[in-house]
From TrEMBL:
<feature type="transmembrane region" description="Helical">
    <location>
        <begin position="49"/>
        <end position="68"/>
    </location>
</feature>
<feature type="domain" description="Ammonium transporter AmtB-like">
    <location>
        <begin position="15"/>
        <end position="412"/>
    </location>
</feature>
<keyword id="KW-0812">Transmembrane</keyword>
<feature type="transmembrane region" description="Helical">
    <location>
        <begin position="207"/>
        <end position="227"/>
    </location>
</feature>
<dbReference type="InterPro" id="IPR024041">
    <property type="entry name" value="NH4_transpt_AmtB-like_dom"/>
</dbReference>
<keyword id="KW-1133">Transmembrane helix</keyword>
<dbReference type="Pfam" id="PF00909">
    <property type="entry name" value="Ammonium_transp"/>
</dbReference>
<keyword id="KW-0813">Transport</keyword>
<dbReference type="InterPro" id="IPR018047">
    <property type="entry name" value="Ammonium_transpt_CS"/>
</dbReference>
<feature type="transmembrane region" description="Helical">
    <location>
        <begin position="327"/>
        <end position="349"/>
    </location>
</feature>
<feature type="transmembrane region" description="Helical">
    <location>
        <begin position="177"/>
        <end position="195"/>
    </location>
</feature>
<keyword id="KW-0924">Ammonia transport</keyword>
<keyword id="KW-0472">Membrane</keyword>
<feature type="transmembrane region" description="Helical">
    <location>
        <begin position="294"/>
        <end position="315"/>
    </location>
</feature>
<dbReference type="InterPro" id="IPR001905">
    <property type="entry name" value="Ammonium_transpt"/>
</dbReference>
<comment type="similarity">
    <text>Belongs to the ammonia transporter channel (TC 1.A.11.2) family.</text>
</comment>
<feature type="transmembrane region" description="Helical">
    <location>
        <begin position="270"/>
        <end position="288"/>
    </location>
</feature>
Length: 444
């Protein structure tokens, strides 16, 4: 029995939007789950993957109960909407309309809610990269819903939902500010409040599985076609241009980063190529659908250079970056790259907004996102620590043991006789420690 479709529904647009949303979801799970697990030491693989997995799931429940409407609903304040649920069939089957943002889509609200959710989810997963290998998992479980509610919704509404920055013409095509500047800021600020990893982990931070990193990176790169290609909200010419520009800038950025590694360190680096890929993806995100191919190449050139200097020169010489233990360098790969992309929108935009005034508004938008996330990430973590009395950092014993203490699980559980869990070699003397169940474990 066939069911009559509403006249406003465009099946092609709906199919593409659901596909694009799924591609973005795959960037988080399994993309960043795999990438994080590979980038850290073996004893942190489970916990790092779990933080991403939990963040994805918890964000969705917050999103459908209150956060979507706070981000895209009726305006409550100039920077946030009225929170509320979108869980009835009447909501889900009606046409997706965002009056404040002047958007009427040819697909249902349920599709829009899902598409916007995967953007919120990857934001929380990205910022987790600054907290890995020492954040108390219970603090993380409380942090996720609070941060989505008090930080993410504000950026989303201000720039996409009809808020004051969008009204003033600030361009963030697909999340350079809403996602990357906010996550880079929150990851760095949160790393300060949580405290550093063990000194041994900071000194010896070689990834335990680089091939796993490359698998995650490949999912991230290809999934970005949905990230930027889905934001015209239609299977349109703009979607095609955004996808092509995304890949052009990313390839250019990766090659430039590899070039700088080769010049400075005398050898190309796989991890450097991955960092260049990420900064290219981030920098083109605010501009993907509003620049031409030549603009995408120049954005890739800049995103492969300025974040490289930030990470490899400033990150190793300035005391601030030695004091704040940003595990995966999200400050450099997301905050710096996101600001670069947002600034370059004002220069290379093919619309009439590409002028000096636009550059000023782009910088103002970045300052607002950085300031808001600095304040609210700090307040949330201080609330968890001092009001809820949940430590932000694991105990020293759990830091020595890792996954087995936190989850009672091992990333590679082969059917061998149980042996002591070891901390990746080195010349340190054995240390007696106990896991969460009191079992004695020798840690080297």
């Amino acid at each position: 029995m066939s069911v009559a479709q509403p006249t406003w529904l465009n099946s092609g647009d709906n199919a593409w939007q659901l596909t694009a949303g799924t591609l973005v979801a795959l960037q988080s799970i399994p993309g960043l789950v795999i990438l994080y697990a590979g980038l850290v030491k073996r004893r942190w693989a489970i916990n790092s993957a779990f933080m991403a997995f939990y963040g994805f799931a918890a964000t969705l429940i917050c999103w459908v109960i209150w956060a979507y409407k706070a981000s895209f609903g009726k305006q409550m304040l100039p920077f946030v909407g009225v929170p509320g649920p979108v869980l009835t069939m009447n909501d889900e089957l009606t046409q997706a309309v965002l009056p404040a943002a002047k958007i009427t889509a040819a697909f249902p609200l349920s599709t829009m809610v899902y598409f916007q959710f995967v953007f919120a989810a990857i934001t929380i997963v990205i910022l987790a990269g600054g907290f890995l290998c020492r954040m108390n998992i219970h603090a993380w479980m409380v942090f996720v819903p609070l941060w989505i509610t008090l930080s993410y919704t504000v950026g989303a509404f201000s720039l996409w939902g009809g808020g004051f920055l969008q009204q003033r013409g600030v361009i963030d095509y697909s999340g350079g500010y809403v996602i990357h500047v906010s996550s880079g800021t929150a990851g760095f600020v949160g790393a300060y409040w949580i405290g550093p990893r063990l000194d041994s982990d900071r000194l010896d931070h070689k990834p335990h599985n680089i091939l796993l990193v490359l698998v995650g990176a490949g999912i991230l790169w290809n999934g970005w076609n949905g990230f930027n290609g889905g934001d015209p909200y239609a299977a349109s010419t703009d979607a095609g241009a955004a996808v092509l520009n995304t890949n052009i800038a990313t390839a250019m950025s990766a090659l430039v980063w590899i070039m700088w590694d080769t010049i400075y360190y005398k050898k190309p680096s796989v991890l450097g190529g991955v960092n260049g890929m990420i900064t290219g993806l981030v920098a083109i995100t605010p501009a993907a659908g509003v620049v031409a191919g030549w603009g995408a190449i120049i954005i890739g050139l800049v995103s492969g250079s300025i974040p490289w200097v930030s990470m490899n020169i400033a990150g190793k010489k300035l005391s601030l970056f030695q004091h704040v233990d940003d595990t995966l360098g999200v400050f450099h790969t997301h905050l710096v790259a996101g600001v670069c992309g947002g600034f370059l929108v004002g220069i290379f935009s093919t619309s009439e907004d590409g002028n000096g005034k636009q550059i000023g508004w782009q910088l103002a938008g970045a300052c607002f996102v950085i300031g808001w996330n600095t304040v609210w990430t700090s307040l949330i973590l201080l609330f968890i620590k001092y009001v809820l009395r949940i430590p932000l950092r694991m105990s020293e014993v759990d830091l020595l043991i890792g996954d087995d203490a936190i989850h009672g699980e091992d990333a590679y559980s082969f059917d061998y006789p149980e042996k002591p869990i070891r901390n990746g070699g080195g010349n340190s003397p054995p240390v007696d420690a106990s896991d969460s169940s009191g079992r004695k474990i020798e840690v080297v």
